[in-house]
Amino acid sequence: MNKQGAGPERVFITGASSGLGAALAAEYAAQGATLGLLARRSEMLDQLIATLPNPERHRAYAVDVRDHAAIAAAAQAFMAHAGGIDVVIANAGISVGTLTEFAEDIPVFEAVIATNVVATAATFAPFIPAMKTQGTPARLVGIGSVAGIRGLPGAEAYSASKAAVISYCESLRLELKPHGIRVVTICPGYIDTPMTQVNPYPMPFLMAPDKFAAKAARTIAAGSSYKVIPWQMGIVAKVLRMLPNPLYDLAFAKAPHKSRKAAP
Ligand SMILES: NC(=O)c1ccc[n+]([C@@H]2O[C@H](COP(=O)([O-])OP(=O)(O)OC[C@H]3O[C@@H](n4cnc5c(N)ncnc54)[C@H](OP(=O)(O)O)[C@@H]3O)[C@@H](O)[C@H]2O)c1
Q1: Helices marked H in 101-252 — which ranges?
Q2: CA 65 to centroid of ligand 1, rounded, Å
Q3: pLDDT at 259
Q4: Is 31:221 a contact under the CB 8 Å cutoff?
Q5: Domain 10-252 has CATH 3.30.379.10
Q6: Residue 25 Cα to ligand 1 middle (Å)
Q7: Does residue 161 have its Cβ closer than 6 Å to ligand 1?
Q8: Helices 19-30 and 209-222: crossing angle, nearest 10°?
Q9: Quick one: which of 2, 7, 5, 4 has its CA closest to 213?
Q10: Nearest-angstrom CA–CA distance, 250 and 64
Q11: Residue nearest to atom 23 of ligand 1 (CA)
């Protein structure tokens, strides 16, 4: 607990330069936390820190999450600065349309899996030994997506990556429970960020990032295993999970596609 008794003291967030990560940083800073913020665009991290309460306490790490050694170095530097770790949120992610029939989309597929899945594990890894020994409750948070519940057309890599995050976090949850480390999976529905602002289709139950961050922080504090935010998309996710394939195929055959792009 921080000095105000409201939330965790030391929070490390990847993908903090934009969208959900920046909103989570603002939420935890308002609770009095000390933050380690990681992304590639260091100027965006510096600008964000300048707007937060207690800017001198927070640290920015300009790192590509596909560079696992650099994440480990940032994790060690942050724990040395903050004196330990309470919450790690592996939020960095990319969403690009891919179609398997195009050979040039295969490197994009690889980049999506490397950024959304492998980097989630690489973000958690350097913190687990400290979490096991420091004797205070700790949380690892994976960011899935409703797009990971069923495969969406045109989002072959993205849906696969988010399904993998959900299953990976479940495996890790069982593995770390005996050590008092909670693993929390959060699946956002549609949240209004640069990632979704390019979507050329209607987004039901679209939520503001600060509202999402407040709800996510409460879910993390409670140590819940799994939560879809907003709740209306939680109902959609439950229905999607139960739909037999013929009905799902009928409903989603003409679903809108994300645009394809070169490997980021
Ligand atoms: N918005 C939604 O509706 C929604 C729904 C479901 C799931 N999500 C998930 O929520 C997470 C955040 O998305 P968002 O909507 O906030 O998107 P966003 O505004 O595009 O932000 C993505 C963040 O990830 C960082 N990032 C991407 N690739 C990176 C890399 N290789 N190394 C380091 N950082 C990297 C970006 O920072 P730099 O570019 O500075 O590196 C940025 O801070 C993602 O995992 C996304 O899949 C979002």
Answers
A1: 106-113, 119-124, 128-133, 156-176, 194-197, 209-222, 231-242, 245-252
A2: 11
A3: 85
A4: no
A5: no
A6: 13
A7: no
A8: 60
A9: 7
A10: 40
A11: 15
What does pTM read for this prediction? 0.97
Question: Is the shortest distance between the CB of 115 and ligand 1 below 6 Å?
Answer: yes
For 231-243, b where at least 16 C-beta lie within 10 A, e where not — what string?
A: eebbebbeebeee
Segments making up each domain of the chain, as ranges = 10-252
143 lines ligand 1 (CB under 6 A): yes
Q: Is the CB of 188 under 6 A from ligand 1?
A: yes
SS3 47: helix
Q: pLDDT for 178-231, tens place per residue? A: 999 999 999 999 999 999 999 888 899 999 999 999 999 999 999 999 999 999
Q: Tell which atom from ligand 1 comes closest to the C-alpha of 162.
A: 47
What are 166's two structure tokens?
A: 């959900």
| Residue-level pLDDT at 1 | 55
Q: How far is the CA of 231 from the centre of ligand 1 (A)?
A: 21
- Dihedral, 203, 207, 208, 214 alpha carbons, nearest 10: -150
Does the Cβ of 142 fall within 6 Å of ligand 1? no
